[in-house]
Write a structure and sequence with these properties.
Strand order of the largest sheet: 1-2
Number of strands: 2
Largest sheet: 2 strands, antiparallel
Number of helices: 2
Structural class: alpha+beta
Strand content: 15-25%
Helix content: 25-40%
Radius of gyration: 17 Å
Length: 69
């Protein structure tokens, strides 16, 4: 267990040991989710980000007209 504080700007430092174990580096994109009274932080892999960006572009330019999910 690690202990950290929230700064006056709302920033939280993730301890270096945990960052290393989870491969969180500068520029990592994270999702923060509240589940009950627990805050979960998850890393979004670059592949998923690219897929999301590509899908949004497809929608924007009309390449996807109907969702078949």
């Amino acid at each position: 267990m690690e202990i950290t504080r929230i700064s006056s700007k709302g920033q939280v430092v993730i301890p270096s040991k945990i960052r290393a174990e989870l491969n969180f580096g500068e520029g990592s994109v994270l999702v923060i989710e509240k589940v009950g009274n627990v805050v979960m932080i998850k890393k979004i892999e670059e592949d998923l980000l690219k897929q999301i960006r590509n899908s949004l572009e497809d929608i924007k330019y009309g390449r996807i007209k109907e969702w078949k999910g």
